[in-house]
Each structure stands twice: as structure tokens, then as C-alpha cells.
Write a structure and sequence with these properties.
185 residues; mainly alpha
Length: 185
């Protein structure tokens, strides 16, 4: 699957045109796994209450759905579409850190962040949902900035994540409903 001309133009603008040492550090940080771990820990501390076990159960649901979404992208969609990463096929692409694997469609980082965004909204409401939405957007942007994904890869990843996140919301809502029956406020 070849990228469209507009995808190449957007990639060039973001990856080459926005090039800056501060953005290199910021975008690498947004793409790193440890950032998600720190974000999750911060979320737990922020949500501290008498029902910590409920927050943990919601996080378990989110982790399960992220794992399923990630496997869908990695084992099913990427081999099916066989779209090569821009850093593997375009000499103009500036590689910020490393190029990663071969296939890029859809972006698993974008998929996983969209799952977290949708499910966090279902689990903890609007304010947490809005925070995760901004985080999700910047994770997707970081993938294009780093030269490892085309914009279409990121958008497709968001769509896959929204679908998985929407399905996962049923688990979160079921957990919350059962918790309300077992341990009323």
C-alpha cells in the first residue's frame, strides 16, 4: 500500500520542517513505553480513593484491551497491508531515534493510546478522558515527527483503537456496575 502525495507532504512538513532538538527529546519521550508507565502510575495516585481496587480492575481491563488491540495490529493488520515505514523507503526522512520494524500500517502506538483514551473516559469520566485525548493526539504526532509512520498510519491506528476501546468500555461498565452492587457507596 503506497502513501498518498498528501501523506508524504504532511510527513515532510512534520518530520523535516519542524525539526528541532527540543522536539526530538519531547517526541522520543512521548513514544517511549516508560512514559505510559509513568502516566498510569500518576493516574493511580490521582485517583486514590477508598475504591482503589476498582481503579485497578479498570486498569486491568484497559491493559487487556490494549494487548488485544496491539496484537490485532501487529499480527493481523500490518502483515495484511504490508506498508513499509517511511524511514525504510524515503531518503528524505529524518530518523530521530531508530526506524523500528518494517511494517507501519496501522500505528500500534496510536492504536494503544486511543484504547487508553476511550476506556479512561468510560472508567473515570470527562476530565481524565480529555487529558488522555491530548496525550493520545501527541503520541500520534510523535510517530510522524520521528519518521516511523505516515499520517494515514496514525489515523488508522486511532480508528482501530477507538473500535477496541469502545468494545472494552463494556467491560469497564460491567466492572463498575458489579462493584456498585457488591460495595455500595
Amino acid at each position: 500500500m503506497k502513501p498518498s502525495q498528501i501523506e508524504i507532504e504532511i510527513l515532510t512538513l512534520i518530520n523535516v520542517g519542524w525539526s528541532h532538538p527540543f522536539l526530538d527529546i519531547l517526541m522520543k519521550t512521548l513514544s517511549a513505553e516508560y512514559t505510559w508507565a509513568a502516566f498510569t502510575l500518576g493516574l493511580l495516585v490521582f485517583l486514590g480513593s477508598k475504591k482503589k481496587w476498582l481503579h485497578l480492575l479498570c486498569l486491568v481491563w484497559i491493559g487487556l484491551i490494549v494487548a488485544l488491540a496491539d496484537m490485532t495490529g501487529f499480527y493481523l493488520l500490518k502483515p495484511f497491508f504490508e506498508r513499509l515505514r517511511p524511514c525504510k523507503v524515503n531518503s528524505f526522512v529524518r530518523i530521530v531515534e531508530s526506524c523500528g520494524g518494517w511494517e507501519s500500517f496501522p500505528s500500534n502506538h496510536s492504536t494503544n493510546s486511543a484504547v487508553v483514551c476511550i476506556m479512561a473516559y468510560a472508567a473515570w469520566g470527562r476530565s481524565i478522558g480529555i487529558i488522555t485525548m491530548f496525550f493520545c493526539f501527541f503520541v500520534g504526532l510523535s510517530r510522524v515527527y520521528m519518521g516511523v509512520h505516515y499520517p494515514g498510519d496514525v489515523l488508522a491506528g486511532f480508528m482501530v483503537g477507538i473500535l477496541w476501546g469502545g468494545a472494552g468500555c463494556f467491560g469497564v461498565r460491567l466492572t463498575k456496575a458489579l462493584a456498585a452492587q457488591v460495595v455500595p457507596d
